[in-house]
Amino acid sequence: MQYLLFEDKSRFDLLPLTFTRPVYALRVGIDCLQEKWQRALGSPLATFAYTYLQPRFESYNPEAETLFINGKFVPNDELLRLLHEGCAPATFLHTASGEIIAARCIANQVQRPEGVLSLEALQNSGLRPVLADLGHTIAIRYPWDIFRNNGAIIRQDYLALTARRKSAPITDKFSAIYGKDNIFIEAGVKLRANVINAEDGPIYLGKNVTLQEGAMLHGTHALCDHAVLSMGAKMRGDSTIGPYSKVGGEVGNSVIQGYSNKGHDGYLGNSVLGQWCNLGADTNTSNLKNNYSEVRVWNYPEGRFAPTGSIFCGLIMGDHSKCGINTMFNTGTIVGVSANIFGSGYPRTFIPSFSWGGSAGFSTYQMRKVKEVAAAVMQRRKIEFGDEEANILQSVFELTAPHRRWETK
Questions:
Q1: Most buried among 140, 155, 286, 332, by the most CB within 10 A?
Q2: pTM: predicted TM-score of the whole model, two decimal places
């Protein structure tokens, strides 16, 4: 049996984060959704991907009997039981609201326009629909689902990743440790005069993580492999700092996908940053409106600002975007891919991909310069900016041209 992760229409609601990756490649909790599924199933995974992402992310055997799994769901025992017991050959599982859960057939039997599965496509493929209940399964449908569910998913991942394993010891006598039994430390971690409090939730420190002097860490929290906390950093709960990220200042209930920097003072709350982002010194995000009203954010499929159902939402930033020192982001700001933001005042709350500017206005960040900067940034992490990455950025540039309305004036 081939296990295959696919995407449905939620990938478009998760833009800008999914401009450069499939939904199942998003980090939430300690690791990415795909890694959770591989751990839960104990098997390598095949994958479908959206059009221009296929060269990097798609891999499957078209002739194999396949259990298709919607990659936006976080695996748990309830869902695994449903998949194995409820998804018979030539059927697909769906919810009462029309969400696809899973399907089972030969891989190349499925129709998937643009690489995305839909109810109509599965029905046209000759599969029989079966109504199913997801129970308490968590789904990542919108960007804010990432930080809202992050604490619960860290707890779930923590149990799975640390089961029957022994944590490395804490040897620094100048660090204050609370809730020691709720802390797991991988090999190579460096602690120096830190305050680590896991009384309210687990703390996971990945391989070769560095906590510089005076950094404070409050659970529930995940610091992934090779992440660095700057001196005096204040890390509040329900947050994930992805691999090879450098973070300082104050962070609360936020997820940094990886390879991104927020190395200086400033506040990041109820936010999600993609990869290869950089926030300049004293960048601050508002996560709560002064009148405590519901936050509305830009929704790409609808082409308008849509409600989040919450009074808390900070910054959602796509890959390769950056901002200058003292940047101020208003509540519920959406920044696309490879935007460069600078200047005084609050920029608009929807900043299209490949924007260059700030509150005074924007021009287009041209692809030649985009690629030069991306190559330089990735080289600092000893990662090559290759043709696949360049082609993805070029595709996003062309796809998002209608959002840069100044180009048509």
A1: 332
A2: 0.97
Q: Which residues make Cβ contacts (< 8 Å) with residue 13, sequence separation at least 6?
A: 141, 142, 299, 300, 301
Bridging pattern class, strands 65-70 and 100-106: antiparallel
Tell me what pLDDT residue 409 has.
65
- Coil, strand or helix at 15: coil
pLDDT tens per residue, range 195-206: 999 999 999 999
Class of domain 143-408: mainly beta
Considering the chain, what percentage of its residues have pLDDT values greater than 70?
Answer: 100
| Segments of 170-209 assigned E as strands | 176-178, 183-185, 190-191, 195-197, 203-205
- End-to-end CA, the chain: 54
Residue 178 burial class via C-beta count within 10 angstroms: exposed 0-12, middle 13-18, buried 19 and up: middle
For residue range 144-203, what is the model confidence (pLDDT) as tens digits?
999 999 999 999 999 999 999 999 999 999 999 999 999 999 999 999 999 999 999 999
Amino acid at residue number 135: G
Examine the pLDDT at 113 and tell me if it is beyond 90. Answer: no
In three-state secondary structure terms, 24 is helix
The CATH 2.160.10.10 portion of the chain extends over 143-408
**188 Ramachandran zone, left/alpha/beta (phi>0; psi -120 to 50):** left
| DSSP calls for 78-145 | HHHHHHHHH--TTEEEE-TT--EEEEEEEGGG---GGG---HHHHHHTTPEEEE---TT--B--SHHH
Strand partners, 65: 106
Give the CATH fold of the 2-131 domain.
Spore Coat Polysaccharide Biosynthesis Protein SpsA; Chain A (3.90.550)
User: What b/e sequence results for 203-230 when a residue is b if at least 16 CB atoms lie within 10 Å of its CB, and e otherwise?
Assistant: bbbbebbbbbeebbbbbbbbbbbbbbbb
Would you state the pLDDT for residue 357?
Answer: 97
Summarize pLDDT for 372-384 with one digit per residue, the tens. 999 999 999 999 9
- The torsion region of residue 292 among left (phi > 0), alpha (psi -120 to 50) and beta comes to left
CATH 3.90.550 in the chain is located at 2-131
What does the pLDDT read at residue 408?
A: 82
Return the residue matching tokens 């992402």.
53
